[in-house]
């Protein structure tokens, strides 16, 4: 992780991503900063005074490096210590840890579908766990895979909004806001068509079916049995609405459906 030991040089130069994953993170940073997200990360996002003392570009660099550090710890299945984050990533920018950590946690949740959970308040130790308890990233056997639960949560939410059956063309249009396109390799999610129509279908998270009586044939996505077993439509929609900063009360039909889902699951 020697590349994480050069923040001074990075902060003196224009922001330039060093690889495809970092490029994705730098691109996402501006969108997150502009969104009214009220994500429930382990650090309260009320550090505007701290953030204002460094240029946004510098904060973006630090956040990107911290996200890469968190991903490396996740791959190694190691706990995350605040002292190590300060030593390996922030160095002389320790005073900016609260805002950088908060933004990194939000990025991990939105892009990778991973929540940062505090396990030892005295030692300031954290672990990464999949959002909503989804286990699709439980095994990263090749040591190179990126957590993909964030994309799965987004997809399950799109399907739920289409009353359980989302037309394929609408799914790809919705995922395009994340830079995900059918047949185009993605630096984090790989080849998305194969992931959606084969990998997650085989794992039971999705069903990929032809629309009845469609000619020419058209296809759509449905929730699979494993998705129903690990989460619920209400939990997925509540999560997506929360991270987007929208008020759940603005969607009375979703609230009513959520109550129904919870009663059925009780």
UniProtKB/TrEMBL annotation:
<dbReference type="InterPro" id="IPR021072">
    <property type="entry name" value="MAGE_N"/>
</dbReference>
<dbReference type="GO" id="GO:0000122">
    <property type="term" value="P:negative regulation of transcription by RNA polymerase II"/>
</dbReference>
<dbReference type="Pfam" id="PF12440">
    <property type="entry name" value="MAGE_N"/>
</dbReference>
<dbReference type="GO" id="GO:0005634">
    <property type="term" value="C:nucleus"/>
</dbReference>
<protein>
    <submittedName>
        <fullName>Melanoma-associated antigen 10-like</fullName>
    </submittedName>
</protein>
<dbReference type="InterPro" id="IPR041899">
    <property type="entry name" value="MAGE_WH2"/>
</dbReference>
<dbReference type="Pfam" id="PF01454">
    <property type="entry name" value="MAGE"/>
</dbReference>
<dbReference type="InterPro" id="IPR037445">
    <property type="entry name" value="MAGE"/>
</dbReference>
<dbReference type="InterPro" id="IPR002190">
    <property type="entry name" value="MHD_dom"/>
</dbReference>
<feature type="domain" description="MAGE">
    <location>
        <begin position="59"/>
        <end position="258"/>
    </location>
</feature>
<dbReference type="InterPro" id="IPR041898">
    <property type="entry name" value="MAGE_WH1"/>
</dbReference>
């Amino acid at each position: 992780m020697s590349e994480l030991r050069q923040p001074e040089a990075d902060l003196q130069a224009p922001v330039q991503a060093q690889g495809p994953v970092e490029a994705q993170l730098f691109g996402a940073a501006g969108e997150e900063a502009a969104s009214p997200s009220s994500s429930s990360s382990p650090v309260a996002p009320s550090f505007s005074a701290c953030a204002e003392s460094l240029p946004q570009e510098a904060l973006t660099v630090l956040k990107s490096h911290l996200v890469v550090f968190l991903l490396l710890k996740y791959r190694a299945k190691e706990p995350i210590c605040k002292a190590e984050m300060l030593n390996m990533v922030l160095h002389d920018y320790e005073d900016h840890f609260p805002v950088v950590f908060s933004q990194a946690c939000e990025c991990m949740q939105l892009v990778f579908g991973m929540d940062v959970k505090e396990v030892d308040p005295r030692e300031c130790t954290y672990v990464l766990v999949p959002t909503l308890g989804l286990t699709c990233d439980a095994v990263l056997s090749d040591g190179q895979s990126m957590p993909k639960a964030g994309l799965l949560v987004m997809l399950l939410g799109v399907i739920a909004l289409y009353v359980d059956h989302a037309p394929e063309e609408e799914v790809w249009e919705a995922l395009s806001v994340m830079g995900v396109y059918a047949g185009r390799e993605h630096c984090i999610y790989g080849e998305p068509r194969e992931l959606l129509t084969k990998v997650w279908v085989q794992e039971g998270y999705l069903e990929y079916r032809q629309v009845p009586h469609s000619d020419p044939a058209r296809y759509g996505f449905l929730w699979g049995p494993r998705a129903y077993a690990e989460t619920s439509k209400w939990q997925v929609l509540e999560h997506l609405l929360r991270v987007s900063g929208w008020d759940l009360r603005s969607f009375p039909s979703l609230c009513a459906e959520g109550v129904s889902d919870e009663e059925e699951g009780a």
